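Hi R.,

Here's the chain you asked about this morning:
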Amino acid sequence: MTPDIFIDYKNLVFRDYQQKKLRNVISLDLIKPTPASIKSACKAACELRFNRKDENCLTLFFGKQEDKAGYAKAITRIETDKFKPLANFLKGKTSDTEEKNIELLAWLIDFEQRPYEFGKVYVIKTNDGTVVQEETKEEMEDQVNEEDLSMTTQVHQPVTELLPMTTTLVVSRRKLDYKKAGVLAIILILLLGVGSYFVLRPKENASIYLTGAGKCMYWNVDHYEAIACIPKTGYNIVPLDSAKFTGFKKITTPDTITLDALGHVWYSKRRGELEFFTTDGYHPIEPQLRLKPISIYIINKYILVKKDP
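And here is the predicted structure, written out as tokens:
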């Protein structure tokens, strides 16, 4: 099997390991893995749940044996340093490891979809049942690098700008009779009058109006706040979007993100730092940056590894 084919299976196994580690439902020997503790976990797994379907995996590590007792003896005899590459991988000291180490990990954590099957499409299911196709590590690194370039490359996205509260009515004169023209003139006058009222209203009410629940909004640190649709220095005011207003937030404590965030968290790289948000879309301050769905690779490299001392 080749790494390109094996990568999805590997990520699924590692994701299962991280989830079970966070929930404390795996052997204590695997919580803070060392070569010695992994060897101890192998002894326990062989004793508690030896299964013929795992023989290919066990043979790769311990050599071909006749039965459960034979593998138990082989585990006892094997050099402890043989487990060092897997320990380094689980602690984030290396970014990849041999396939036999991944299969051994799948056996140790009782991964349901083991062993690896050539040609099988491996996907991830989030808590809500959404299917997420796993990406390779190289693809994820390319995405992060592309985000650096996007700082100088404008993405074609329509940006709504506030305009003065006037109305331009473009209507073909040939199709208008005098009656329709009169109605349109009245509407125009009313709109101009309403606009003038809001622009020229007394100053004593201006502070209330500018901070009230208007029909526009602006980004305030980690969320949107409502504001009136009047240009204001220092504010990037945009039309009110009820979905973004209530649901679009910046996650200010990214260390709380776990693997359950797949399908629920998006991120962007801005000025060399990753920022995480609760919904899809574009960056609220730099709208040329398209948010990307968080993935196993991003969580492992930038969040979970930092938690593990």
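One quick note: The first strand starts at residue 123 and ends at 125.

Cheers,
M.
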